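Memo subject: From amino acid sequence to discrete backbone structure tokens
Keywords: amino acid chain, backbone geometry, structure tokens, three-dimensional fold.
Body of memo: The sequence and its backbone structure tokens, given next.
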Amino acid sequence: MVGWMRPAAGACLVLLFTLAGAADAQRPKLGIGVGGGVVLGTKLMDFTFPTQMDEQEVQLAQQVDMADVAIASIHAEWYAGAHFAVRAHAAWGAGRTEAFTSCAESPEFCDGTQVERSRFETGYGAVAVTALDAGVSIWPWTPRSVGFAPFVTVGAGAFRYDFRAEGGEDRFFRPAGPRTQRALLVGLGADMHIWRSLMLRLEGVNHMVDRPLGATDFRSFGEPRASTAGDLGARMSNVRLALSAHVYFPFGESWTVPD
């Protein structure tokens, strides 16, 4: 995690504890949380393409992945009803991209070319991600009324990628620059009671977005390819797993919290 994130997260937690106070015997109306997590390894693209090697056309297969993405996140919720919440969320982080190329033909066909039969890395780089979204959460049990409170969430937002390519100009995969995709979200989570108004929240959310890559992100021996097997624009999933400290702000009518 970036160095400044740790003291900033600590300051946020101190502020949340101070505001929460001893008012934990009331029904919660607002909630705020800070935490961190990961975006699971994502397959950005998987396709085949032809190229000329040793004076013959060879079909190559290429897979592009996004990996090792660590994120920091913050969220806020308004509990409009006993089992319903409106929420907003933001996350940001960084990871890396990697592309692997291999022969898509039979081993006998590839043996006479410069293509090794095993996969080899042909592109890599850094990627920064930002997610902004809003949605609703449904709670079978009223938040904070039980020690373990699961919920379902759905929403919409945006997922931004900022690619920074590395390596030589002859690499097949050369993404560069930012691009933002619309996202639909669906996820599951749960709050576990720790102390007073403090909860430990575990959440898994699938951000379903259009693939962020374009034809000019791929090159064959330094020249942009005209197409990439028609696989651009298809939808993909970015699965976010996050662990956060969540604090309820219990304004409203008083009620009894079960032991």
Summary: The longest helix spans residues 5-20. The longest strand covers residues 56-81. The chain has two helices and eleven strands. Helices lie at 5-20, 107-110.
